[in-house]
């Protein structure tokens, strides 16, 4: 059990409330850390000349240019939605099962049992649908507890999109139907379509969805080798992932699919069919600008930010290393507590909270079970590297000691 905020039933501090934009009470589900709170409200995607802002603007421009009606953009843009959402918004409204792993405390940052920092921008989908919006982009910061390395960070940014079509929009010649229960649920013999949809409607929506996303990828990367991979999501069916060939390997770029009709009807939309997708801004920017470490997006170093001060947001730019500072590597081993739930993500969060952005990577390098006592020991290798200066071993040792002390106190481990 994580004990980052042990004082239950007490409100957050005034400073914390300012970050959160309201008053919330701690309870046994509270696991949000001070380090994570410091990221709330920074909105890197809205900061001028930031690489995430460049990608954000390019995606918006693509949709405005691709979808217009009477010279007006079809897609509404929501890029300042508050990151605190209810459990209902983040999970229930998207038909995510009660026992789904994505709901766990080891995956999400909870303020309490009722509220959390959104784990995906899709959390706002139902409220916008209920508000009468049919075509929209949702862009913002999302929060997930995760491993620590150059491509993972607990705060990142997503673009999620929704597009709905009525029967008249999908079949302008009045020769088709969105809903048709009389046909088979098989869809091309591979994935089952939703029972309520006609095959013709799903095929047309799939074609538009895939053409839209391929156009987006080409607008960002130019001609690139790609492939569609069938997958499953709780909120779409059928569902696909789009992979591109990058650095001699296949990279998952986004997920998409035909929206579950129950999501629409629960939001008061009964006569439309929709498609949706989600894409990570950091992943695109790291590929597009050859940025090697996800921590760089949070750097305030002018040597980093000045490289993206572009006259044309479509301009090609390759990130140049400011300097390559050496790593410092320390290991830490401890026995896990008896009869207490432990997740590696608990330790990763603790490391981030005490080590901040000088922690480059944390690896579980040994998982040992004592043959007699059956006690479990973990050994983690922590790689430290500052993005803007050379760290001394003495500095690293102080941070490493602080991490060990915190692990002993808050995770109840026994340092070896």
Brief sketch in words of this structure:
The protein is of the alpha+beta class and about 425 residues long. About 25% of the residues lie in helices and about 25% in strands.
Q: Can you walk me through this structure?
A:
The chain has 416 residues and is of the alpha+beta class. Helices cover 27% and strands 26% of the residues. The chain has 2 domains: 34-295, 2-Layer Sandwich (BirA Bifunctional Protein, domain 2), CATH 3.30.930.10; 323-415, Ferrodoxin-fold anticodon-binding domain (Alpha-Beta Plaits, 2-Layer Sandwich). It is built from 12 helices and 17 strands. The chain has a 7-stranded mixed beta sheet. Strands 15-16-14-17 form a 4-stranded antiparallel beta sheet. The chain starts with 13 loop residues before the first helix and ends with a strand.
Topology:
Blueprint lengths: L13 H7 L13 H4 L13 H16 L1 E2 L2 E2 L2 E3 L5 E3 H4 L24 E3 L7 H6 L4 E9 L11 E12 H4 L15 E2 L3 E2 L6 H23 L4 E8 L2 E11 L2 E11 L1 H6 L5 E9 H9 L12 H4 L22 E8 L8 H12 L3 E11 L6 E9 L8 H18 L3 E2 L1
Parallel strand pairs: 3-6
Antiparallel strand pairs: 1-2, 4-5, 6-7, 7-13, 8-9, 10-11, 11-12, 12-13, 14-16, 14-17, 15-16
Helix pairs in contact: 3-7, 3-9, 11-12
The coarse silhouette is: globular
Strand order of the largest sheet: 3-6-7-13-12-11-10
User: Low-confidence runs (pLDDT<50, min 5 residues)?
Assistant: 1-9
How many domain modules? Answer: 2
CATH level 1 class label of the largest domain: Alpha Beta
By CATH, the topology of the largest domain is: BirA Bifunctional Protein, domain 2
Work out the oligomeric state of the chains in this entry.
Answer: single chain
Helices and strands, in order, run as: HHHEEEEHEHEEHEEHEEEHEHHEHEEHE
């Amino acid at each position: 059990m994580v004990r980052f905020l042990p004082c239950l039933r007490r409100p957050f501090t005034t400073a914390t409330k300012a970050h959160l934009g309201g008053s919330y009470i701690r309870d046994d589900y509270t696991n949000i850390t001070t380090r994570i709170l410091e990221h709330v409200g920074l909105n890197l995607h809205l900061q001028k000349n930031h690489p995430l802002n460049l990608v954000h603007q390019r995606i918006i421009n693509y949709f405005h240019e691709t979808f217009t009606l009477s010279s007006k953009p079809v897609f509404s843009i929501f890029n300042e939605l508050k990151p605190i959402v209810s459990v209902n918004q983040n999970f229930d409204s998207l038909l995510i099962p009660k026992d789904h792993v994505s709901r766990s405390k080891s995956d999400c940052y909870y303020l309490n049992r009722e509220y959390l920092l959104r784990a995906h921008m899709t959390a706002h989908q139902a409220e916008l649908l209920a508000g009468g919006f049919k075509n929209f982009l949702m862009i913002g910061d999302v929060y997930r507890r995760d491993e620590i390395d150059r491509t993972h960070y607990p705060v990142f940014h997503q673009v999620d999109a929704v597009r709905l079509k009525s029967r008249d929009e999908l079949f302008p010649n009045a020769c088709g139907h969105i809903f048709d229960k009389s046909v088979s649920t098989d869809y091309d013999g591979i994935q089952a379509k939703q029972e309520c949809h006609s095959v013709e409607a799903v095929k047309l929506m799939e074609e538009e969805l895939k053409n839209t996303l391929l156009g987006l990828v080409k607008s960002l990367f130019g001609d690139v080798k790609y492939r569609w991979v069938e997958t499953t999501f709780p909120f779409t069916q059928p569902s696909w992932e789009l992979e591109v060939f990058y650095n001699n390997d296949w990279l998952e770029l986004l997920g998409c699919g035909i929206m579950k009709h129950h999501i629409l009807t629960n939001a008061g939309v009964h006569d439309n069919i929709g498609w949706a997708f989600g894409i990570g801004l950091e992943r695109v920017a790291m590929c597009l600008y050859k940025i090697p470490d996800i921590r760089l997006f949070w750097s305030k170093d002018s040597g980093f930010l000045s490289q993206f001060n572009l006259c044309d947001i479509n301009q090609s730019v390759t990130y140049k290393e400011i300097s390559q500072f050496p790593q410092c590597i320390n290991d830490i081993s401890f026995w896990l507590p008896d009869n207490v739930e432990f997740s590696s993500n608990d330790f990763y969060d603790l490391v981030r909270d005490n080590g901040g952005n000088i922690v480059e990577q944390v690896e579980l390098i040994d998982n040992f079970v004592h043959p007699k006592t059956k006690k479990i020991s973990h050994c983690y290798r922590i790689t430290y590297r500052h993005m803007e200066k050379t760290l001394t071993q003495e500095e690293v040792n102080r941070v490493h000691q602080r991490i060990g002390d915190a692990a002993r106190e808050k995770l109840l481990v026994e340092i070896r």
